Amino acid sequence: MFLPSWILSVGSPNSRARQEPPPPSSVIQTLPRDLLIEIASLLECRQDVLNFCITSSHVFTHVSAVLYAQVILKSVEQCNITLDMLRTRPGISRHVRELVIRPQARLRKTSFNTLDNAEACSAVAKVAASKSLDALVRFQWDDDELPYHDEMWFALRMGCPQLRYIAASIGSLLPSINNHLYDFTDLKGFSVTLKSGFYECHPDVFIEEDHPITKKLWDMLTRRCPNLEELTIQGSYSVPTDIRCISEGRWPNLRKLTLGDVCIDWFPRSLLPGEKRPFIAFLEAHPRLESLSLSRHTVQPIHLASLDPASLGRVTSFSGTHQQLQALPQIHSAVRRLAFCDSVETREVSATTVANLLRELTKLAELRISFTLHSMYDSGNLLRSLIQSCPRLRHLELTCAHKPSFQLDAFAKTIRGFPKLRSLALTIVRYPGDETLSAGAAFIARSNPRLRRFSLTFIPPVYPVSLPFSLGFLARPLNLLLPLPDRASGSFELRCDEHGLPLNIAGREHSKMVWPWGLGTSCKTRRYVRDLRPPGLASVRRGGVRGFVDLVCERSSAGEEVRMILFCAMLVCFAVWGFVVTGRSRVAQRVVGAGGREVAMVGVPWGL
C-alpha cells in the first residue's frame, strides 16, 4: 500500500533531524484513492460525506463516486439545476448509479401539477439523451401520474445502457398502448406504484387479460425479462385491485417480491383434488425468494398453510400480518427482518400473543411493529414482552397510536433490555405534561449510549366519535382561536467520546400546527446540538463570573458543595464581623470610662 513520504522519512537512519508531521490538509492530499473511498463509505450520514468531500479538491475528485452514487431530487427546481449540472459535468455524472425523481415531494398541495411533471421529465430526457448517465443502474419515477412525456423512457433506454431497474407510478391516467415504458428488455427489477387515482378510476384494468395495457405489460415482464430478480406492485387503498395474472409468471432468479393492496389469489372455480391455488403454486415455483412482502388483501392466512414445508427456505425478510406470519412456520428460523404491515389491535390481539410469535424468530434483528391502543393501560407489559421475545434486536421501529402509551423517561430506562439495539424509531401519543422532544431525546441518549441514531414522533390522539350536537368544544373556548399540534417529529444523532460516554446529540425537529376554521397549517423546523455531559465539567462550564454563578446554581454534588462552602464562608464572615464590632464597642467603653475617672480626679481638692 502506498504510504506518504513524510511517514517513510520519520525514523529512517538517513534523516538528519526529527521531522515534524505536516498539517492534516497536506496529509489528506497524499492519501490514496482507495483509502479515501473506504473512509467515505463508512460515513453513515450523507451530510458527513459532503463535508468530507469539500475539504479539498483532491478528496472531492475521488470521493464524489460515493457522494453521487444515489441522487434523489424532490422538486422541479432541483431537477433542473442538478440534472443540468450532471449533463455538463461528465466527471460527476459517471458516478450516478441510482436516480430518484419526485417532482412534487416538497409541495404542500394535494392537486396534481402537469407543468411540474412535464418540466421534470423533460430534464431527465435531456440528461439521458446526452449519454452522461452511462453508469445508471436504477431509475425511479415517483409522482401522482406517469411522466407527461413518455419519450423520457426512450431516452433512458437508449442513453443508459446499464439501466436494469425501473420504478414508475400510475395514477388516473393510464399509459398509452405505444408508451415506451413497455419497450425495456432484460430488466432485473421492475416496480409500479398504484396511486389513489388508479384505484378510483381504473380498479378493474388488470382483471381483463385481453386489455391492451395488461397484455403489453405482462408481455414485457414474462417474455422479455426472464431474469427478473425484483418485482414490486405497491399501492394502498381500502378496496384492492385484482392482478391475478401475475401468478402465471415464472422467474427462476426472483429474489424479492413486494405486493401491496392487490388481490392475486382469487380463483374463479373450485379446486380439483390435489390442485393448489395459483399464488401458492407461484410461491413454490420460486425457491430463491429472499424477501417477501404481502398485504392483508394478497392472500388469506388459511391458504398459506397449504404451502410445501420445504418452500420459502431462503426468506430472511418478511412483511405482512401476524396471521400470515403465523401460517408460515417454515420461515421462522431464518427471518432476520420483520415488518407488520397492519397495526395490531390490542383489543383483539394481546401483546403476549404477539410476543409468543416473535419468540419463535430466533434470528430476528430488525422489527417494525405498530399497536392500536384502546386504553392507556394496554401498554403496561407491551415493551417488556418485546424485550423478552426479541433479545437480539438491532433496529426497532415501534408505533403506539390512539392513546398515550409510554412516558419517555420510563421508556428510556426500559429499553436497556435490548443489549444490541443500535437504531430506534418511536412514534407515540404524548402524555399530557410529558417531556418535549429534545428532553425526551436526552433521556434516551443518556440511558442508551450505544444508540447511534434514533427518531421520536408525537402524533395526536384519536378520540371516539362525538354525539350529534355535542357542545364539548365550548368547555375551552380559547382553543377555537389557537392552533392545535398535529404532529411533531425529530431525528437525532448521538455522539460519544472515546470511552463510550455520550457527549451531545445533534437534533432536527419538525412540527406542524393546524389552525382552526380551515385556516391551514403552519410548519416549523429547527436544528440544534444539545450537550449531554454533566454541567460540572470544566470543559463545558463557562469561565469568569458567569461560570461561577452557573456552578453555584447547578443541581449537582459540585453545586451543593460550592453552596455549602459559600454558606460556611458567610457564617465565618458574620462571626468575624461580630468579633470586630464587639471589640470596637468594648474599646470605646473603656476609653469613655477612663476619661470620666480623669475628670473626676481633676475636680477633687488636694487637701482632701
UniProtKB/TrEMBL annotation:
Domain of life assignment: Eukaryota
Entry-linked SUPFAM superfamilies: RNI-like
Alphabetically ordered keywords of this record: Membrane, Transmembrane, Transmembrane helix
InterPro entries referenced in this protein's UniProt entry, alphabetically: LRR_dom_sf (IPR032675)
Record field: transmembrane: 562-581
Record has Phosphoprotein as a keyword: no
Cross-referenced PANTHER family: F-BOX AND LEUCINE-RICH REPEAT PROTEIN 6 (PTHR38926:SF5), F-BOX DOMAIN CONTAINING PROTEIN, EXPRESSED (PTHR38926)
Protein name as it appears in the record: F-box domain-containing protein
Species whose genome carries this gene: Ephemerocybe angulata
